[in-house]
Structures are given as C-alpha cells and as structure tokens.
Design a protein that fits this description.
Organism: Bacillus aquiflavi
Order of helices and strands: HH
Oligomer: single chain
Structural class: mainly alpha
Number of strands: 0
Protein name: YhfH family protein
InterPro entries: YhfH-like
Largest sheet: none
Length: about 45
C-alpha cells in the first residue's frame, strides 16, 4: 500500500547542522545546510 504524501513528509528526519549538530528550523524554499549561528561565524 502506498503511503500518503503528507505522511511521507511528516516522517522525514529533522535537518541538523553538520558544523555544530544543532537542529535547523526549516522554512519553505530554504536550502540552508548550516544553522544561522554557524553561517554568521563564517568569514565572507
């Protein structure tokens, strides 16, 4: 039996920052890989 799309997306694991391990609070159309704190610490 196929799983509904809503259940599929609900069951995906939370995104975690690879730098510090903090859980990233995702928003629509966001493709960030690091958390805001780690991004702010990077030199430009």
């Amino acid at each position: 039996m196929l799983q509904s799309p809503v259940e599929f997306f609900r069951n995906l694991p939370k995104k975690v920052c690879p730098e510090c391990g903090e859980q990233i609070n995702e928003q629509a159309e966001s493709y960030m890989m690091e958390c805001d704190r780690c991004l702010a610490q990077k030199p430009e």
